[in-house]
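S1.2 Input.
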Amino acid sequence: MELRTLRYFVAVAEELHFGRAATRLHMSQPPLSRAIKQLETELGAALLERSSAGVTLTAVGAVLLDEARALLDRADRLRARVAGAAGAATLTIGILGDTTDPAAARLAAACRRRHPHIEVRVRETDLTDPTCGLRAESVDVALTRGPFDETGLTVRELRADPVGALLRADDPLARRDSLGLADLADRRWFRFPAGTDPFWQSYWNGGEPREGPVVRAVQECRQAVLWNGTVGMTLLDHEPGEGLTVVPLTDMEPSRAVVAWNQGDTNPLLRSFVRIAIAAYRD
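S1.3 Output.
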């Protein structure tokens, strides 16, 4: 039983769809289906129930999923420890500026426990680069938020967080229990510089072109609202700061916290980090 085949199975079991699993693995669907069929033949048991709607795990498949995850994790840890013993194990993580997510602290603690001999380097970027240095290959992995152009990248969602309108506390709209984007249509918004990823720019501007001051950092967003009375979006559970408030937006999709890395990167330490991140953000 090859580790590669187990990785194939875990992808199908987690996605519960052969097409999505093939996309995640950067391969076509037919060889993936053949590999799973061969695995079932080797084990002498059905692992998946297949239907037009997708797939579900059998009881045997659920057992294999637990064991396969543990085995793959041990294999990646083995490679990472060997690399660490050789003095070659480092991981560079890109993060958006002003990140205060408690899940990031849980992730750091979990990484230290799992890989105590690995050197972790953190590179902070401003809001103009949602990939946090991945395009420039200055980081190995990014803890960031979508949406952005995912060409050449692998992206896994960690969590979805509601967003709200960032307003001055004395703004007439600040007294509302909730708002829609139409309530902000005639207001000036803070916006990112020209050349910023268009998917990213569009999301944080509520899907519309806006006029207003150009900002690059979280603090600049807050100061633009405080000094100019402009508006913008932020995470609903972020503390906005004195003189500011956040009102829920009822017609905006949540902001997705994601982990992203360059396609084709087979670093076992990276794979281990992604699994730890998914668990840390789920807790």
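S1.4 Remarks. The two ends are 32 Å apart (CA to CA).
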